[in-house]
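User: structure tokens for this one?
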Amino acid sequence: MGEGAFGPSFTLEGDANGAPHPDPAAYAAKFTGPYAHRLVRGGVGHNLPQEAPEAFAQAVIDVTRL
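Assistant:
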């Protein structure tokens, strides 16, 4: 199997994530199935399940609809 994610996928990013990372467009092509990126606002860092549990849970639900 090749590189990349092949099923429906979301990437999530907190608006207060201080870690250096590429723009989502730079890695979007690595997803061969349905893909979406969400920026979670409200001072959320890199631990979305703990810092934004509702947004994280909604993404888990929504990925089934991609």
